[in-house]
Amino acid sequence: MSVPLSAGPLRNELPRKVTRLAWILLALGIVLYAAGYMVDIKRSALNNVVGFLFLASLASGSLFLVALEYIAGAVWSVPMRRVSEFLAALTPLTPLLAIPLFFHLRDVFEWSHPAAAASDSVLMSKSPYLNVTFFVVRFVCVFGLLNLFYYSFIRNSTRQDVSREQKLTTINIRLAALFMPDFAVIVTLIAVDWAMSLEPHWYSTIFGVYYFAGTVLAGLAAATYIIVRFHENGLLPRLRRDHFYSLGALLFAFINFWAYIAFSQFLLTWYANLPEETFWFVKRWRDGWQYVSVLLILVQFVVPYFALLTQDSKMDPKRLKLMSIWILFAHLLDIYWLVMPSYGGGVPLSWMEIGYPVLLAGLVLVVLSYEVKRTNLVPVGDPKLERGLNFRL
Amino acid sequence: MNDGPLYSVTALFDTPDAIIRAAEEVSTGGYTKYDVNTPFPVHGMDKAMKLRQSRLGIFTFFFGLLGTVSIVGFMTWVTVTDYPLVIGGKPFWTWPAFVPIAFEITVLLAAVLTAITMIVLYFRFPNVSHPLHDTPYMKKVSSDRFGISIQASDPKFDEAAVRELLRSLGGKEIAAIYFDAEDLSHRQELFDPKFLGVLALTAVVVSGATYFSFNTLLDMQPFSWMSEQNKLKAQMPSDFSKDGIGMRPPVEGTVARGFLPYPFNGKPEEAGKDLVNPLLPTPAVLARGKAKFLTFCSPCHGNFARGDSRLQGQFPSPPTLHSDKVRNRPDGSIYNVITEGQNVMPSYASQILPEDRWAIILYIRALQRAQNAKESDLK
What we know:
With 393 residues, chain A is mainly alpha-helical. In chain A, 75% of the residues lie in helices and 0% in strands. The interface between A and B is small, with 10 and 10 residues.
């Protein structure tokens, strides 16, 4: 019944077709990216924020899933952990995408204008936090810490393939315990700095949690899609319906979590009805944004909720593939909905908004093709691997 | 006890894997009437036993839907039809406020009604007896063993063959379970007239006791030592006096200590003629008059009695006190105005003591004099 590990190749190359597509997408994305900055700096910079936040979601969400497996002592996810590790390899690349933004801070962030901050009492009182120096310091600290954790986790994990030392798992568990509280702060800071401060008069204390819900969804959905594709192509042959069910159930749980947090954020603002809070939602209920808002509820909650409601659908690889791509799109829409209303005047949608998703798709595939060549597809040295492969619900 | 016909043959296994294998073999063997008992849910059992998907989930869905629809309907009826209130300037039908409640009621109804449905439809409530109850088999499968029980009602059932099958699968402690003859002949107690009678009696007694407690018992006083006293409380009626009023008015013509009656109500002319200011304009009296003037008079008449306060224009404008009319008024007449009020000005009798009124009048005189100073004042 059990297929030996060697039945699937441990290292592999993505099909030539996929690699070529990856480079084409990346190149096209970079061209669109550069062209965008030549046409409309403000709009392009805001699109850059969308792309940056999405990539940060994907990277930090994947790192979170890796750490979660260690800290929870999870067994079922061990054979698939490498996929999340591959995606976490986006962590060092994420800050690169933000670099162009540092040259256009004033186009994006109202608080970065000294004159605006001086004449506005709200911005004035927030200026000890919202100023360019501290912003850069936070950015460096957040991504420094994230990359430190990334390298530590991955180094221990890959070294275990050769040394088979159980001690490395123990070290990673301790590392995960250190990582979790830091991750809460990191995700909150990314969300507050890059999304909430676009409209610096507005605040929501739940905003970090809101972004976190999307982050885990993105990391999970991307991993699920790749895992199912790998399995279909014979790369992870010993995965069973039990594994897929667990992935589907986790996806389903976080869809509900996202809806719960999103509604909580809305309900409290709606109840209190204070103008300094409501304007943010009012802005998203005008000039065509109301259709995007309704679409977001449908796309990110209603459709995946019913699509993954039944037991069978959580195990169905086809359904999982469709839904994980769907949820990635939903998360992109979510971030677009958070960021783009700052541009003002209707829903901006043209080739400029397409550029970043294309760039990101290319980037993810290029990183993936590089990683599968370099690292074993399965953590062969992990002491929990055999139990994970024989996992039954 | 177990003296009825054969119910089933049971066997025990040690691990979840063994019981899954046993269930697979038994179902492939063509048996349909059998059950598996485990101390915890064993995943994959449905598939091993080749069970159809339970239809309980469909019930749950509709119970949940019932919860959502009924609570949203109820809240709509309350907030829109029955008792519409404007809360926080929001419309009557405020769906975001309904969502948390709708969510809770949906979960509650779905969970509770599913449990009840399971007990009634699947466990055949009120039938609470089962031949497996109180057997060593049941004791073991509810602690640490995994059991399978193949029923005698199965069309393929043959005791020897079943025992052989279970033994070949590695089952231990293979045993036959018999129906309890008493259980079989047992009439359902739930519909026993005696039981129903006691139930009805209990209902009557309990509701009667509740009614008695709330309407009589709680109002009874165990002791009334000092709470009931033979005295009359303020504002209470009494039949001691003819008019039935407990509190007696003072005898006509009584004068309270420290207060003199004011005989000039409604008679400003006479007040001006007969009343004389008892105070002399000493610095102390003027200071007192100034303080009281600034407190009570200045809000309308202005700090310098020019009638120029900030109320100007919002009411019939308060007059200046520097007019000839006021300047020529005798002190007694001004005293009467303060005491009784005039036109829009209300009475200040309850706010300003008589002595202070006279002091205010002296202060007003001083202000008037300041506006119309004579040469001689400078000397």
